[in-house]
Amino acid sequence: MWGINTGQAQVTEREAGDKLKISIASGKGGTGKTSVAVGIARSIEYCQFLDYDVEAPNASIFLKPDIKNVEKVTMRQPYFLTETGADFSKCVEFCRYNAVAYVRGKVVFFPELCHGCGGCLLVGPPGAVKERDIEVGKIIRGRASPGIDFIMGDLNPGSLRTVTVQAKLDEYIDEKQTVIIDCPPGTSCPMVASVKNSDFCILVTEPTPFGLNDLEISAEVLRKLGIPHGVIINRDGIGDDSVERFCDKNNIKILEKIPNDINIAKAYSDGITMPEYNKKWIKRFMAVIDLIEKENK
Ligand code: SF4
Fold first, then answer.
1. Domain range spanning residue 234?
2. Is the CB of 94 inside a 6 Å radius of any atom of ligand 1?
3. What confidence tens digit (pLDDT) does each residue in 83-97 have?
4. Nearest CA-CA partner of 152 in 144, 176, 268, 29
């Protein structure tokens, strides 16, 4: 199996009739990850597309979905009835996220740090700690032509609850469709939360020392998660062959190479996907899907 050389596989077995869930990730932003994700969705034509890059979702610029539904994502957060004069020190002691503190004898709540675990309600003075729903983002759903079921998470500005919005996206994954997941860049919690549901992850990188460094880290994360993965090299022709040598050494399949072509970049800046710019990309992206399907049989 490509890109897997440990026995740590955590990927759940697909049931008969379930389609592939493919995530597209990259160790850093600006490598062409979304370009590949929307290009694949446009090539498949009938699939589900989920934008998990909830801090900066931009796939809608390219897929241009007709939006049908906007739903708030909320989380429970406590509030403290300070006028009761109750002692909240047990809440302060309990909260491992330091979301509640005593400052000069007054209880102070830091909502950005609160994980909504509800613990301070349990340990706090009875009746003096209450809970309410706080909006942290939105789930936006629609349909992109011809048959792309489009779902996007959108984190509210200033909110730190990225993973809360992503967890809501998880509920919409449709096992009966091919699922394309556009992940956030990097290798921190939001990336892990995005790839964890996938059967295969495509890592998009550039053939440069920076690209190699980020690829090494991303591939290691996927190896530890037990998620099969392959690489698409973008802007092929710049840099050196260190990415190819790394893939070769680590048995990671290079699924496709996208040339360093100014016309692709221009199309991208106009919101045009690669298959729309040049139909040859439909064949090339479908060949990538074929390779992944063969690997996952
Ligand atoms: S709900 Fe949990 S995370 Fe939030 S303040 Fe209370 S103990 Fe801390």
1. 21-64+145-295
2. yes
3. 999 999 999 999 999
4. 144
